[in-house]
Amino acid sequence: MDGSTRDFVDYDANLIAVAHGVADVNRSHLILSRVDRGRCSTAQGGGPQFVSEVWYGPTDTTDGNVGDSWCSMARIALFDARARKRLGGAQAVAAVDATLTKLENELLRGKEAPWMHERFGCDGEQQTNRTFAYFEYPSLVVMLLREVRYGIRLGFNEVSVVPLGASTFSYAVGNVRVRYSRAAITVSIPGSGARTFVIGALSPGAKYLVKRCDAASSNATVNDEGMLQFDATIDNGCTNVVSLQHALQAKARSYGPGDK
Fold it and tell me: Which of 90, 124, 178, 224 could make an S-S bridge to 171, C-beta 3.0–4.6 Å?
């Protein structure tokens, strides 16, 4: 912070920088490593995820207002998860799963379930002197599942399904329906018009058959980063289907003459 002589890491700003690629990969790893060493970080048993490495003093804030400086905030946990997903790997999967497991347990089986308080403390427990029956952490569970674990992102021009640590899943909430496996992916979303689809976490070099909403079909190959990309038009919930060609060929070979 400007004007401060204290050496500490503000988790919020640094995790946003990692999540959005402001910090390069090497620097991102260093940032996450330092966050994880903090005594109140999620990795050390604190709530998901703490505000800062050190409590904000009056000289570090506007008009001496220390505010929410010694607690966890859901938005920071969201950027923490996005940051780890950007770097990927087993550690990212473990970190996101740990946060989800904790929050799901508090939401479904905690002392005050299904209600939750607004903030968590350094001890990893809900702060009972904070707003009760608050939306923040239940909303975070929904966002972590959709955006991070299942990797479903709907943009104006691009639709992406890039899961983290989920090899198969079925997601149907409202008018967004996605089924995902390495053998087949189906996507049905609201809206209309042209979209670029990006499907991730697939095997590099694998070949898929894409059947679009308009009945057109084409072949597509997964790139070296495990991403499959194709353009398609959506129309108010119609379904685009992506099928692994090897699986289709194996199914075709399993039928003999006269089989139905």
Answer: 178
